[in-house]
Amino acid sequence: MVQGTHQIQSQQQIQTLSPQQILVVKLLELPAVELEDRVRAELMENPALEEGTSEDETAEENLDKNSLDEDSSIDSSEDYSLGDYLTEDDIPDYKLQENSRSREGQAENIPFSDVTSFYEILKEQLGERNLTDHQRELAEYLIGSLDDDGLLRKNLYSIVDELAIYVGISATESELEQVLKIVQDFDPAGLGARNLQECLLIQIKRKEDSPIKQTEINIIDKCYDDFTRKHWDKIMQRLGLSEEEFNEALHEITKLNPRPGSSLGETIGRNLQQIVPDFIVDTYDDGTITLNLNNRNIPELRMNRNFAEMLEEHTKNKANQSKESKNAMLFLKQKVDAAQGFIEAVKQRQNTLVTTMQAIIDLQRPFFIEGDESLLRPMILKDVADRVGLDISTISRVSNSKYVQTNYGIFSLKYFFGDGFTTEDGEEMSSREIRLILKEHIDNEDKKKPLTDDELKEILNKQGYPIARRTVAKYRQQLNIPVARLRK
Fold this sequence. Notes:
alpha+beta, single chain, 3 domains
């Protein structure tokens, strides 16, 4: 007995992206520099697209034809002649060369990657100092020991051991201390500091002498613990400062860079890249925050009027067209549609970027006002997506490889995202804030008897951060801090 086969017909919904949606997604992922390259490539490939705005078209229409010089008349005729070719491959080479030469006169400020490393930049400054061979060897090793922020997280006595074991160089802590002072004199100010307090003091001492400079030094040198905890009243009382004097000094201190190495690029062995911010955020004293999209080198786009007119003319005579005319009309329509789609995709990208960045500013407003990393609240992609009504994947694309310039430096958008937890009092706490406090305790510990993870857990619990020992260990590892026995 042969059993028959049964065919079952069913409907299934499958979501697919249109070519226009795919274009928008691709442009959304591009940072400012790559978008500029993409726009200029599109301008070269599509003759129906050109630089300029709709206002430029109006201005051109109002020009007196008699005032046009001979060169502009020639350029105009060339624009019309491009429409006579069915495909871009049919355009003669001499016309492409002329088009390329016309672009050479436009000065473009295109960012580029430098091959000079963080290590080489500091070695150049080292070469300008009059040192002995022994001092130079010690200085080079110290420079090689700096972290991404340009700070020296290792203890000098640990470096003495490393020099003896791994390099075969004998040195004392006193010798290293003297050489470190030389490294700390390099630019930018703050390099080579062993903690944030020393980093800030180095930057303050580089300033010109003034009454406010001494006030800044006193705040950081004598009242650092109260400063980190924002006990402003205690600081004013201890130093005998008026509220106006304190606020003026505090305003200057917030301008200092806690990560001086970030301005030199990444760590040793990596290339120094010039970062072009996608956003520019300015914060003013009255609490006003302004946001601008950085489109400085990205040209404005518009339709080529000649192409639009030729397409309109072909459409009017559609009834009595030859095969060649129909092919020409098809070519014109494809280019015009592509140009319109690209212009719309660029506009949509700009709107999405601005909307997303504004949501990040709103959610992290205390940071943008104060510039204090500890003020960053827990924030995930979903928080921003819910606020702007976009998909999480869209927010992910916006935040990837994008940078924002603020009053306090240039930051990756990913910098503003972080997890957190809720305390027993219901207060939402950022894991970044806990890592900062954890690092502060480790920096100030007795190096002869470093704190264990259990001891750190107890300290943090007493301060109102009820986290487990394994969480302490996780945060310590994220900070690249070894266990207690290796910190001895």
